[in-house]
Amino acid sequence: MATKSKVVETSFRLGAGRYIQEEGAISRIGEEIERLGKYKPFILGSKTAIKITKELIDKSLAEKNISAVYYTYEGFCNEGHCERIVASEEFKNCDIVIGVGGGNMMDAAKLCACLANKFVINIPTSSATCAAYTPLSVTYNDRGQKVRTVHHSVEVNAVLVDMDILCRQPIRLLVSGVYDALAKTPELNQRILGKSEDEVDIGLRSSYVMSEFIYNRMLEDLSQAVVDTKEEKSTKAVYDIVYLAIAVTGVISGLARGSNQCAIAHKVYEVCRSLYPEIVYPALHGELVAIGLICQLAYNGESEEAVKAFSAQMKSLGMPISFTDVGINADDECIEVFYQKVVSSDAMAGTSEEEQARLKKSLELIR
């Protein structure tokens, strides 16, 4: 029996008005701002991201006689923090938001733009998530616990993916983005398993078909992409992995319209952040999702051999494969708490006692 799903967002918001992925893409930021009829950018980014990109951004802006305000943002996307930014005079005097950095920076930039009804352009410095592309922001409190997902009424205006930067991203970020994207297939499968075509929302079905493509293609290209990224080469394998992780995974999310396309794997992530925020703070989004993905595959009925092989590949790439690997003391009490949190969530809505027992057994694999 498939887990029940519901349409959270009625519109199909497929991500971004423009998506540019090429070597030197940052050099186009000035023309993209001008194209939108804006001239006073507020640039939001982490300290590291701004250090990597500022010279390139400033050069492009200077060509269009545009000056920018830079704001250093650290940590998770936090609604209170974003509200304070939006209330500042510096922000009020700007007419477009530019997000630079990883997933949290992308979400914070989108949220600030939404709160102030301003345009937003995202420049991701990693492919660890599809956050640069998707018209939503995942928010967290001051402890790093997830609060909610804010669905924005408009799409991102443009995304600039500079392969000169992305081909040099840490391997950990590249791999994390791959496994976050891979989770879509088994999670969507949980939603549609056993349902007739008449019972499956066409957006959800479409997103599942696309997820199968990226699942197979990413696993096929991953090894070469890792080798090439280690050598800082902008090759087709790296380009394709980045494109699939950011753009195509973002489209998959939009096609599903928030119809619970995330299931057990992402729920394990959320419980980790909720119960052990300080312990798992250093872990990447995709790393925690990937631990849950092992559980998801077992729950979906993959053979023990297949699950072990999947885990072994993760481990060979430096990924954590258990709660213990990210510092959680996974004793019997811990596993029971995880079980209760997941089984009572929308990830298991409408499931039978047999399916719930299968969940508990699957959690044992990621102690």
Description:
- The protein contains 15 helices and eight strands.
- The chain has helices spanning about 30-35, 45-65, 80-85, 90, 105-115, 165, 170-180, 185-190, 200-230, 235-255, 265-275, 285-300, 305-315, 330-345, 355-365, and strands at about 20, 40-45, 70, 95-100, 120-125, 135-140, 145-150, 160.
- The strands form two sheets. A six-stranded parallel beta sheet has the order 1-8-5-4-2-3, with helices on both faces.
- α7 (about 170-180) packs antiparallel against α9, α9 runs antiparallel to α10 (about 235-255) and α14 (about 330-345) crosses α15.
- It has about 375 residues and is an alpha/beta fold.
Mean pLDDT: 94
Query: What is the H/E string?
Result: EHEHEHHEHEEEEHHHHHHHHHH
Number of strands: 8
How many strands, which pairing sense, and closed or not: the largest β-sheet?
Answer: 6 strands, parallel
Strands of the biggest beta sheet: in what spatial order? 1-8-5-4-2-3
Share of residues in strands? 5-15%
Layout: helices, strands, pairs:
Blueprint: E1 19-22, H1 29-35, E2 41-45, H2 47-63, E3 69-72, H3 79-87, H4 89-92, E4 96-101, H5 103-116, E5 119-124, E6 136-140, E7 146-151, E8 158-162, H6 163-166, H7 171-182, H8 184-192, H9 202-230, H10 236-256, H11 264-275, H12 285-299, H13 304-316, H14 332-343, H15 353-363
Parallel strand pairs: 1-8, 2-3, 2-4, 4-5, 5-8
Antiparallel strand pairs: 6-7
Helix pairs in contact: 3-5, 7-9, 7-10, 7-12, 8-9, 9-10, 11-12, 12-13, 12-15, 14-15
